[in-house]
Specification:
Blueprint (H helix, E strand, L loop, with lengths): L6 H24 L7 H6 L8 H26 L8 H8 L1 H19 L9 H4 L5 H21 L6 E2 L29 E5 L6 E2 L4 E2 L2 H4 L2 H15 L3 E4 L3 H4 E3 L2 E2 L5 H10 L2 E7 L15 H15 L5 E5 L2 H9 L11 H25 L4 E7 L2 E4 L4 H13 L2 H6 L6 H9 L3 H8 L7 E6 L5 E4 L5 E3 L6 H12 L3 E5 L8 H17 L6 E3 L6 E2 L12 E2 L12 H13 L9 H7 L1
Parallel strand pairs: 2-5, 2-16, 5-8, 8-9, 9-10, 10-12, 11-13, 12-15
Antiparallel strand pairs: 1-4, 3-4, 6-7, 13-14, 17-18
Helix pairs in contact: 1-3, 1-7, 4-7, 5-7, 12-14, 13-14, 19-20, 20-21
Length: about 575
């Protein structure tokens, strides 16, 4: 497993582990308990007969250096391999250096401290000294070291939600002028990728999962844009960090967006701006906050006024997924697990999307809205009425946020649920809403989007059973809107090219069936972090799903996507896409 390592945190944990070892063992030695003294053994190699003021700093420095090296080994190769409490993980890995110390370091120190000009190898020098003091000192010291690094090296990615680190968009470092994207006509088929920009909180709202920081985008944004141009995409899904930019009512830190947005304006690709992507600023709390629509509407208006040239927007990304993960599955943000909380989050998210749309239209009347949502489907495992009813309700629940923003009637069981929780009047207000004409239904698809409702009533990932064509057609039949394939990727990098072409053929199949489909997206440009576990824990695991890895080297799927785009961009129906031309005009 490739992982992101917090080098500074690991080094500090290793140094602290060595200090903790020395503090405990030195205290016991001073109390008269004869334990193996690793610091004295290392320090007196340099000053055999010197006072403690000489050998102790030397020995301690060497001891801490070794501790840092082992902590880095732990961070790179052992951390989070097992689902154990972090101190136990550290304790487990300490068995390795303890064994090496017992079999190698101890005997080697005895050899180096030997006063004989020529040392005759004897069993006593080749085998460990198993005296109680020797064994006890080594095992106790390593146990203290392991427990310490395990306790201190945690959460290598993310940061405290109430204390975000200083972030600035590093200026571009270019050896040559930036290339410009091969811009198609405004009516041409959209080939897109995206910068993964999720920023939900976990651990009761205390820890922020900032994907742009974790993947290095803040430092390497100009390089990332160049890579997108190199692939040949026409559009880039891009979400300036709402949680860092919207600092208070009426206050915005535009420094985090001005230069990147200017670069996209001048050189492309054309951005599809994600304004809210799974999280909100700390001062707004979470998605249970009824003030969200008004606040996010204010932010959208300010953004559209600041960047009047932007035409494509995703006001709120994947409303259903956000509401479910935050208020039904209890993983992000408010971390609740009940129907009332889910409905509250769904209505606040849909209300925010509607308010943001209206605010943008006041400044850009011809704006185009890509309402990106996860294309979900649940299949009952067996002919059991209870299981079939659960699957049927989940297949209606997936539509709720889209039903609200598209003013589409909900089914009778969902209406009953809204009445139960006193939300029917709010629902009726959404039904009276006029949906803007220039609206695209964006549908995302991953192998876990299809779930099997097992006999315990829980949904389990089913893999690709029906595929995007079948599921997307269900959404098309319901809403009859212009559509776009807005996300897909594959966790198995070796299978990425096959998955890419499979999803592309699904797109072609749906277009061939007459659906007004205007674009396709591989998401994202670079690898992501901890999405295999839904961002639920800050472990730092790298998901190899990008067109490029985190070193910005191309993956096989990146080369395949470039080939796909080059092959199709000027073909009939792609050079000019009738469905998009109808929206643009």
């Amino acid at each position: 497993m490739i992982r992101v390592v917090a080098l500074r945190k690991a080094a500090l944990a290793g140094a602290a582990g060595a200090l903790a070892w020395e503090a405990v063992v030195r205290g016991l030695i001073l109390a008269g308990i004869p334990l193996f003294d690793i610091v004295r053994g290392l320090g007196t190699l340099v000053s055999p007969d010197g006072p403690a003021l000489v050998w102790w700093p030397v020995g301690m420095a060497a001891h801490m250096a070794v501790g840092v090296a082992w902590a880095l080994f732990y961070a790179y190769f052992f951390w989070a391999r097992f689902d154990w409490p972090p101190p136990l993980q550290g304790l487990a890995v300490s068995l390795l250096p303890a064994t090496l110390a017992l079999l190698i370091v101890g005997p080697q120190l005895e050899l180096m401290h030997s006063q004989a000009a020529i040392v005759t190898l004897t069993p006593s020098l080749l085998l460990p000294d198993l005296s109680a003091g020797h064994l006890g000192g080594l095992l106790l010291g390593h146990a203290i070291f392991g427990l310490t690094i395990g306790a201190l090296y945690t959460r290598p990615v993310g940061y405290p939600a109430d204390r975000p680190p200083p972030v600035r968009m590093h200026p571009p470092r270019r050896s040559s002028p930036p290339r410009s994207a091969r811009r198609g006509d405004s009516r041409s088929f959209i080939f897109a990728t995206g910068i993964e920009c999720s920023y939900p909180t976990i651990e009761g709202g205390r820890w922020r999962r900032d994907q742009m920081r974790g993947t290095g985008h803040y430092e390497r944004w100009s390089q990332d844009f160049e890579l997108a141009r190199e692939i040949g995409v026409t559009h880039l899904r891009y979400g300036p960090p709402l949680h860092l930019m919207f600092t208070a009512p009426g206050q915005y830190n535009w420094d985090l967006a001005d230069e990147p947005m200017a670069d996209l304006r001048d050189h492309g690709p054309e951005p599809i701006v994600d304004l809210c992507h799974f999280g909100v600023p700390g001062w707004l709390g979470n998605f249970q906050n009824a003030d969200l629509p008004q606040a996010l509407g204010e932010y959208a208006a300010a953004f559209a006024q600041r960047y009047p040239w932007v035409r494509f927007y995703t006001p709120v990304n994947e409303m259903y997924v956000c509401a479910r993960m935050s208020a039904l599955d209890g993983v992000w943000n408010e971390q609740l697990k009940d129907d009332k909380a889910f409905l509250t989050a769904a209505f606040n998210l849909a209300g925010s999307s509607a308010r943001m749309t209206e605010a943008i239209l006041r400044h850009r009347p011809d704006a185009i809205f890509v309402n990106s949502e996860s294309s979900e489907f649940c299949q009952p495992c067996c002919p059991d009425e209870r299981i079939e009813a659960i699957a049927a309700f989940e297949n209606e629940r997936r539509f709720l946020p889209l039903d609200l923003i598209f003013a589409h009637p909900v089914c009778d069981p969902m209406l009953a649920k809204l009445r139960e929780h006193g939300m029917e009047d709010d629902y009726r207000r959404f039904l009276a809403r006029e949906v803007p004409r220039r609206t695209i239904l964006g549908l995302d698809y991953y192998e876990w989007n299809e779930r099997l409702v097992d006999n315990d009533g829980r949904g389990r990932a089913l893999g690709e059973l029906f595929g995007w064509y079948v599921i997307a057609n269900q959404y098309h039949e319901r809403y009859r809107r212009t559509m776009m394939h807005t996300e897909t990727n594959r966790l198995d990098a070796s299978d990425g090219p096959r998955w890419l072409w499979r999803q592309w053929h699904n797109v072609q199949l749906l277009r061939g069936a007459g659906a007004p489909l205007v674009g396709f997206t591989w998401y994202s440009l670079t690898d992501q972090i901890d999405w295999a576990i839904g961002l639920g824990k800050p472990l730092g695991g790298v998901d190899p799903v990008g067109l490029f890895d985190l070193n910005r080297d191309p993956r096989a799927v990146g080369l395949s996507y470039k080939h796909l785009i080059d092959m199709h961009r000027d073909q009939p129906g792609f050079g000019e896409c009738p469905a998009l031309a109808e929206l643009v005009d």
